[in-house]
Each structure stands twice: as C-alpha cells, then as structure tokens.
Amino acid sequence: MNQSSVPGTVARYAALVVATVLFLLPFYLMLRNALATDKEITGVDWTIFPTSLRWGNIAEVFEDSSANYARTLFNSAFIAVTQTVGTVLLSSMAGYALARIPFRFATPIFYAVLLTLMVPPAVTFVPSFIIVSRLGWVNSYQGIIVPVLFSGFTAFLFRQYFLNFPRELEEAGRIDGLGHLGVYWRIVVPNSLGFFAAISVITAIASWNQFLWPLVVGQDRSMWTVQVSLSTLMTAQTINLHQVFMAALISIVPLVLVFVFLQRYLVQGVAETGIKG
Fold it and tell me: What is residue 233's predicted lDDT score, i.e. its pLDDT?
C-alpha cells in the first residue's frame, strides 16, 4: 500500500466506524430499555445493560388487553402484504404501459402521474376519507388499503426501469404471438424479479410504518395497526417506558428481517431505475 494513501484509508475506516456506531445506537438503546425496568431507564446511574434482563416484558406487551398487540401485528402484516402486492402490480403495469405501449395520450398521462407527486398528502386526505366513508369502508381492510394502492412515484420508477429493459426479449415474445399483456407477464416480470423485489421491500416498509391513515380509518380497536397500538401505550396519565420500548422493538423485527435478507435488492433497484444522482 502506498504510504501516502494510509492516512486517507484510516480516515475512511474511522468515518465508517463512527457512522456504524451512530446507526446502531438507537437499536442498542431500544434493546437495553426494553429489557429493563422503568427505574433503570430513568435512573441517574446508567449501566450498559440492566442488572437483570427482564424477558417477561415480552409477555407483558402481549398480555395488555388495551393494546391488543397480537391482533395489531396481524393487521399490519396483512395490510403490508396486500398493499405491497397491489401497489407493485398496478404500478408496474402502469409503468410498462407508459414505457412501451404507444398511444396518443401517453405523454400527458405521464405528466399527470408526475403531478400527483407534487400534491401534498394533506390535500387529498379529507376527500379520500369522505369517499371511504360514503362507501362504508370505515373500520375495514379495504378502507385502509385501497385508497393508497396506486403510487405515482412507484409507477415512475417502473417506467424508468422498463425504458432500459432489453427490447430483444420483448420482440422474441411477440414473434411467438404474445400481446402486450403476455409479454409483460411471461417475459418482462420473470426477467425483472430483482427490481420487483426492491420495490416490494420499499413499499412494504412504507406500509408497515403508516400511522395517520390507519388511525383515522381503522377506528375500532380490532382494526388497529402496530403504529396505532404503540401510540396508545403513551397517555397523559401513565407511560410504561419498558413496555413502550419492548413493543417498539417487537414492531421493528419484521422490518429488520426484511432488510437483512433483501438489502441487496434495494441497491440493485436504485441502480436499475436509470436515475442518475
């Protein structure tokens, strides 16, 4: 190694170590406090780990009938999976149509999709809730899922990806007699699974972390999601800190597993959109 490059290498590794520590610090605090008592969390004498790890805090979270945490985990998982599948399917078909199917209004429709990205969600929140209410979808899965199924940003990402998709593969499918739908389903999708997985991960994480819309639509306790249930653990009268930290820790476990096993698709997805940074 060149002597002149040693200081630069050391500086880069030092920066990586600092960044890693800062990134992992919130997770350490969450784990430490989740296994402690309220007194150990707020006490003056700080310890790296509690003197006695309270694994019973896990059972306490699920035994709290007011939070109904097991049900909220199921609701969040069902909503995240359903919304992810629906969003990826609709947005990918829209993106493929805008990228590959020539029709008269393709450009205006594409600009209209881009315009939806400039509209703040607060502007459409009340009209969306009125529509859901008129349809009788309050306190229902469809009321939480359907209004947010289509994503203009996801459609845009798919369009950018399909613009760079090899046309030779599509032409081979058309020679075999496939139409646009057949080419999309039998050729494009099987050869784009990495990008589909990347978009699915991003969509699933966003769906899992939703708070305001599920709070307003899922008014009944049986329809609460994880984020809504977490908010009920903190009231003006009482806050069980160890329970809040344990519930938060449990809520991020699915996201951490998804990220660990599919993180390479996130990098691949960004690289394949054709967006230059």
Answer: 83
Question: Count of H helices and E strands in the chain?
Answer: 14, 0
| pLDDT score recorded for residue 19 | 94
Residue 234 sits at φ, ψ, to 5 deg, of -115, 110
Evaluate whether 240 touches 21 at the Cβ level (below 8 Å): no
Return the CA Rg of the chain.
Answer: 24
DSSP string over 121-165: HHHHHHHHHHHHHHTT-TTSHHHHHGGGS--HHHHHHHHHHHHTS
What is the CB neighbour count within 10 angstroms for residue 232? 16
83 in Cβ contact with 145 (< 8 Å): yes
Among 12, 158, 176, CA closest to 89:
158
Dist. CA 51–CA 142, nearest whole Å: 47
Mean pLDDT of the chain: 87
Give every CB contact of residue 128 below 8 A, 6+ residues apart in sequence.
147
DSSP assignment, residue 102?
-
Looking at residue 276, its pLDDT comes to 43
SS3 234: strand
